[in-house]
Design goal:
Order of helices and strands: HEEHEHEHEEHHHHH
Helix content: 25-40%
Shape: elongated
Bound molecules: guanosine-5'-triphosphate, magnesium ion
Largest sheet: 6 strands, mixed
Number of domains: 2
Structural class: alpha/beta
Number of strands: 6
Length: 290
C-alpha cells in the first residue's frame, strides 16, 4: 500500500480474550462445529486457533457470501480445503439451496465419527467472525427466522440452542474477534468485508487502502463504476470517488470521509462486482487483463 501509512485495526484485547474463552467453552458442549468464514477472504476470516483438543469431533467449514466472491476462486478454495481433509461448502447463505447439503454433511460426519450414537441428537455450535453470516446460516438451516441477524457486527449477543427439528440442534454464538491480526492487508480485508465493527478502524484510512488495493488489482471495476480518472494529472484515490459521486464540501473540495463510506458500501454490497481478495496458495494473484 504505497503512499498511505499501514492500515491498522484497534482491538480491545480484553474483550477478545474473553470471547475466545467463551467460544472454546461452548465448543466443549458440541458434537460438531460449523465454522463460518467469508468466501472473499477464506484464509484471514478463519480462526487461527480454534482446534481444541478432542472435542468437538467434527468440523464443517461454511464459506458465506459466495455471491460476492469469484465463483472459480471459491471452487478452488473448496477443492483445497477438501484436499486438506476439511469438509467445506460455499453459498449465499440468504438462499435455501445449500442447507440440505450442509445438514447432510453435518449428520454424516458426526455419524461416521460416533457410529455408536447414530440416532442421538447432534449439537452443532456455529462460530465465526462478527457479521460473517452465522445467524443467517442458522435461520436457513432451521427454516425459520429465530436467530436475530443484522447488517452490522455484534447483533448476536447471548447463546441458546435452537432445534432444527430432526436430530440437529444449533447454537448461535456472538462473533469472535481475534487480536492477532492488526495491520496490513489482512486487517484491511477484515474491515472491507465488514467482519470487524467500523468502530475499531478509521473508515477514511480503510477507504484509502481499499482504493489502492482495488486500483492495483481490479482497476477495470473501479473505472466501470466511478469512470476514468487521470492519475498522471494528480487525481487519485478517494478524490476520484468523491468527485464522481458528488461528495464535495462547501468550496467544491472532495469530501474523502463520505467517499470512503461510499466505496466501502459499494464494495460490501457487491456493487463493484464480485471480488476474491484471497486466493488459494499457488494460484496466480488476480489482476485484470493479466
Ligand atoms: N450477500 C450476502 N449477505 C449475507 C450472506 N450471509 C449473511 N449475509 C448478510 O450479512 C449480514 C450479517 O449476517 P448475520 O447472520 O447477522 O451475521 P452474524 O455472523 O450472525 O453476525 P453477529 O451476530 O453480529 O456476529 C446480514 O445483513 C445478512 O443478510 C451471504 O451469503 N451473502
Ligand atoms: Mg449473529
Amino acid at each position: 500500500m504505497q503512499g498511505s501509512p499501514m492500515f491498522e485495526l484497534h482491538w480491545y484485547p480484553g474483550h477478545m480474550a474473553q470471547a475466545v474463552r467463551t467460544t472454546r467453552e461452548l465448543m466443549r458442549l458440541a458434537d460438531a462445529v460449523l465454522e463460518v468464514a467469508d468466501a472473499r477472504i477464506p484464509f484471514t476470516s478463519r480462526h487461527p486457533n480454534l482446534p481444541a483438543s478432542g472435542r468437538p469431533i467434527v468440523r464443517v467449514l461454511l464459506l458465506s457470501r459466495a455471491d460476492l466472491a469469484e465463483p472459480g476462486v471459491t471452487r478452488a478454495w473448496i477443492r483445497r480445503f477438501r484436499r486438506e481433509g476439511l469438509v467445506a461448502l460455499a453459498a449465499d447463505l440468504r438462499r435455501d439451496d445449500w442447507t440440505a447439503q450442509a445438514r447432510k454433511l453435518l449428520s454424516a460426519s458426526v455419524n461416521r465419527a460416533r457410529p455408536w450414537a447414530a440416532r442421538q441428537e447432534i449439537r452443532v455450535v456455529v462460530v465465526g467472525l462478527p457479521n460473517v453470516g452465522k445467524s443467517t446460516a442458522i435461520n436457513r438451516l432451521i427454516g425459520k427466522a429465530k436467530a436475530r441477524t443484522g447488517g452490522r457486527p455484534g447483533v448476536t449477543r447471548r447463546p441458546g440452542w435452537i432445534s432444527a427439528g430432526g436430530r440437529l440442534l444449533f447454537l448461535d454464538t456472538p462473533g469472535v474477534l481475534w487480536p492477532q491480526i492488526t495491520r496490513g492487508k489482512p486487517a484491511l480485508y477484515l474491515a472491507a468485508t465488514g467482519c470487524v465493527p467500523d468502530e475499531v478502524f478509521d473508515v477514511q484510512a480503510a477507504g484509502r487502502a481499499l482504493w489502492e488495493e482495488l486500483a492495483a488489482r481490479f482497476p477495470e471495476r473501479l473505472k466501470a463504476r466511478y469512470g476514468l480518472w487521470d492519475e498522471a494529472g494528480g487525481e487519485r484515490g478517494l478524490e476520484v470517488v468523491a468527485r464522481r459521486t458528488g461528495c464535495l464540501g462547501r468550496y467544491g473540495e472532495p469530501d474523502e470521509a463520505r467517499a470512503a463510506a461510499i466505496l466501502l458500501n459499494d464494495f460490501r454490497t457487491g456493487r463493484l462486482g464480485p471480488f476474491s481478495l484471497e486466493r488459494p496458495p499457488k494460484e496466480q494473484p488476480s489482476t485484470e487483463g493479466g
